[in-house]
Amino acid sequence: MSLVDLIMAAEAAQAQAAVRRTAYRHQHLADTPLVVVAYNLSGEAAAPLGIMYGVAADPASASLVVAAEPRNRDSRFGAINEFATDFVQFINPYLELETVPKRNGGFRQVAPDAPQIVVPNRATRAYVGARHGP
């Protein structure tokens, strides 16, 4: 289940009503995409050797998280948690909805901006998506 699906399920449960999936669709690409490069231990699920990430507009602020021994769960999840903390901080501002008028009357809630996450290949996309939500 993706992060958007979890948010929608929580909002629907709170409101006791369905939530429109289109509330979080992309309206345009972000001005500052997050670039993520992950190197995973082969044959091990969720065993990062290293994750480098940062905002494309400021390459000097890139962060590198390294799991010294990816087979050790404390080292593995310490690296994943450090990345996940920064990932959530990047995503949170995009979760705010604004109310806009519909063409045929009434109002709807939409996200005014959407995050863009850039990865170098499908393997990284699958790794980040499967562990942290697509």
Walkthrough of the structure:
By secondary structure, the protein is of the alpha+beta class. It has one domain (27-132). 32% of the residues lie in helices and 22% in strands. It is built from three helices and six strands, in the order H-E-E-E-H-E-E-E-H. The protein has a four-stranded mixed sheet. Strands 4-5 form a two-stranded antiparallel sheet. The longest helix has 19 residues, at 73-91. It is elongated, with a radius of gyration of 17 Å. The N and C termini lie close together (8 Å). The model has no long low-confidence stretch (mean pLDDT 82).
Share of residues in strands: 15-25%
Main sheet, how many strands, which sense, barrel? 4 strands, mixed
Helix/strand/pairing category: alpha+beta
Strand order of the largest sheet: 3-2-1-6
List unreliable stretches of 5+ residues. none
How would you describe the shape?
elongated
What's the β-strand tally?
6
Task: Kindly state the percentage of residues in helix.
Answer: 25-40%
Ends distance: 8 Å
Average of per-residue pLDDT values: 82
Radius of gyration: 17 Å
What is the fold's blueprint, element by element?
Layout: H1 3-15, E1 34-40, E2 48-55, E3 63-66, H2 73-91, E4 98-101, E5 107-110, E6 117-118, H3 122-132
Parallel strand pairs: 1-6
Antiparallel strand pairs: 1-2, 2-3, 4-5
